[in-house]
Amino acid sequence: MNIYALIVTTVYLINIVVVAGMVFFKEKDVKSTMGWIFIFMLLPFVGYIVYFLIVSTTKFKILSRKYSLKKLEEGYNQVLLQNIENIETGKLDEKINPDFADMIKFNAKNGGCVYSSDNNVELFTSAKDKYERMFAEIENARESINVLYFIIKTKDDIGKKFISLLAKKAREGVEVRLIYDRLGMMKNRRRNFKELTDAGGMVYAFLPSVLGSLIQANYRMHRKIVVIDGSVAYTGGINIGDDYLGLDPRVHPWRDSAVRITGSAVQAVQLRFLSDWEYLDKQAGSWRAYPSKVDNIAHMKKYFRLPEQTGNMGVQIISSGPDSNNAPIRDAYLKILSSAKDYVYIETPYLAPDETLLSAFRMAARSGVDVRIIIPGVPDKRFVYYGTMSHIDELLNYGIKVYIHEGFIHSKMIVADDFVSAVGSANFDMRSFLINFEMTALVYDDAFADQCKNAYFEDLTHSKEINVKEFNARSRIKKMKEAAWRLLTPFI
What we know:
Layout: H1 3-25, H2 30-42, H3 44-55, H4 58-66, H5 70-88, H6 101-111, E1 115-124, H7 127-139, E2 144-149, H8 157-171, E3 175-181, H9 194-198, E4 202-206, H10 210-215, E5 225-228, E6 232-236, E7 254-255, E8 258-262, H11 265-284, H12 297-303, E9 313-320, H13 328-339, E10 343-347, E11 351-352, H14 355-366, E12 370-375, H15 382-389, H16 392-398, E13 401-405, E14 408-409, E15 413-416, E16 420-424, E17 428-429, H17 430-435, E18 438-444, H18 446-460, E19 463-465, H19 468-472, H20 476-488
Parallel strand pairs: 2-3, 3-4, 7-14, 10-12, 11-17, 12-13
Antiparallel strand pairs: 1-8, 1-9, 2-5, 5-6, 6-8, 9-18, 10-15, 13-19, 15-16, 16-18
């Protein structure tokens, strides 16, 4: 056997092993599995390299277990088990609507989300309001500031102000840790954070090398987290950049959402940040990692303070990513759709549901639930927008009302039945649900739901409902573009 025949034989043997593994050991959607088997057969060498480097989540599951805060997470799991027991035995706070007790239990078991009821949650519908409040609280920080953003535009005015403020606090002796996604802002270099690192701040990039980012470009650290002195947390959809203030003339006006959280739920946000930091810190190696470790006792006392009684809102913090065993944020949204009796209002910049979510939409709408969705009228990525528009005719046929906002809706918000709301970083697409690292705050409270509902109806005044007849009359070229990009939406 010559060398070429040996190579071809080896490649096909590896192909057979990979395909057998997918068929017998991977719990995947059948259509997805069949699609990859077709690719492996068509492109035997390139196919499985692409799969393992870009698509397979196995490496993240292995690394997340290896580089974890084991003792801290074991303690959290003990709290979670007690939490689930309290839910099952009816020991929840009296304020909980019994119609939603099963939803809380489901998210606790399915997503590992501790429920707490001593929280206060404030909704921000503009980056300006969020920045003003958050910057003021960072200015007053005394011990620790933990920051994670998908995008930090360090050359924008707001980005420069943000980094300078963090550097100022680091010089004052406040411990500052910052994570940003290398792919989220490819123009960022380590020198863009020099002011902060020179002041003693600690900075990690997720997938720090350009090559590593490109090879694993399908996985993005899309969470947005700020935790100040272990007592105040911010999350939602707003990154750091002038465009979030509506200053980009190409994508304007910009509408977004974020939340400020106080109470016990802050600890769940803090744990998520610390786990992400530990993941990066242990991969950095002893020669590049920071000597200050997050898992020592002194840090634990800083990070996990006993919360003051700040409110009476129920909250669960859901995190998901390629290291998750399921898709807990998607499943939480499925539960909202399947449990709704009156209405479900959704706004999202990208809409690419799978068949299960489409079925949930259909069942909710045909059960008489008022389902409405707001999507952007000014897209930031036109090719992704075609993928979004490809789903609209199905939703309209189900009786769902779809609205086009006059600007760019970047808000990821759901409100249902005057009680349950979700605000976070996850878009309503399979990339967010399965591939990106995301975080969503689920809030169980009628007053907060009312805030979200009012914001939603304000957005409706700046939106136009899609007419079925007009939509079906769009050009054949548009329909072809939508069909083509729909096939690629899980990968872009």
